[in-house]
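check these tokens.
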Amino acid sequence: MNRTKIYWICQVVGWSTYAAFNLVLFALDDGNLGAAQIAGHGFLTLYFIFSTHIYRNLIIRWGWLKMLSPRLIPRIALSILILSVSCFLFELLLNVILGISVGANQLLGWIVTQFFGGLFLYFIWSLVYFVYHYFENYKAALKYQASINEIQLNKLKSQLNPHFIFNGLNSIRALIDENPKKAKMAVTQLSNILRNTLGMNEKKLISFVEELRTVRDYLDLENVRYEERLQTELDIHPESYKYAVPPLMVQTLVENGIKHGIATLVEGGLLRLTTSVNNGVMKIEIKNSGQYNNGYNTTRSGYGIANTVQRLELLYGERAKFRIFNQGDKFVITEVTIPKQVIL
């Protein structure tokens, strides 16, 4: 059902219900409900429908739905006053035409009741109309922002995939002449990684179990290349497996630590991946040998830490935290803190 149909159903049902309610009150109070009273309420209902419809058209034409409150409120107040005066004059004319009279002792009370009653009705109509459109616009804005986020996330993921393959092939190329047997083993490892990541392209988040599988395969591939120069340790909290993470996020940070930390050291070094869970939040910590400086903020293709920070911001907003810092003069710590979230 489109907006126009919803609008007209609300108009007809709402004002008709108000008229019927007034007729019931009149019958109970006066006990003499005649054709004039029924006709009067019928014409008044049509007037309410007509006047509010004209009001709606002017709201749309003058762009009031896009105005900010300081400019909008005075315009609404003046419109309600004009509508109330016009409705009161119409009702006065209607009583004359239908021969409905009001006693002299009741005239002042009738004028006050009808005029302020109109003010109240038009105020309620305006409130409902503007609140409805506020939430409609708010939902539209959320959908638009969600679509923009989706585009940005897809762009970031599309950067990671060729980057990941490129670095894997570089590792294998370095082994071909030096050790063909290890190069063949590395090709097998890379094919395992690619097979595991094929299903990640359409997902914003994957289970930590899947991500850890990719990390293990990647570390196996790097161990073939670096041998004794690379020592790896994994300390995974059991509750971590219930969490979801952005695809290739942990792998990218592990790769960053190896390429910018351990690979630059003649003697090699240690990479330790640790997770902990506390109060519904998982902290991922990657500790690697090396030192962090201002230039150490991306991987060779330029998509490492900057990519991770953007993805965390798009997916979690302020609920996720990221930081990277030196621990003494031998190690770099990379920390990611994320809330528990259902896999999308």
User: Anything to note?
Assistant: The chain has two domains: 3-142, 183-339. The longest strand covers residues 269-278. The two ends are 29 Å apart (CA to CA). The CA atoms of residues 106 and 169 lie 94 Å apart.
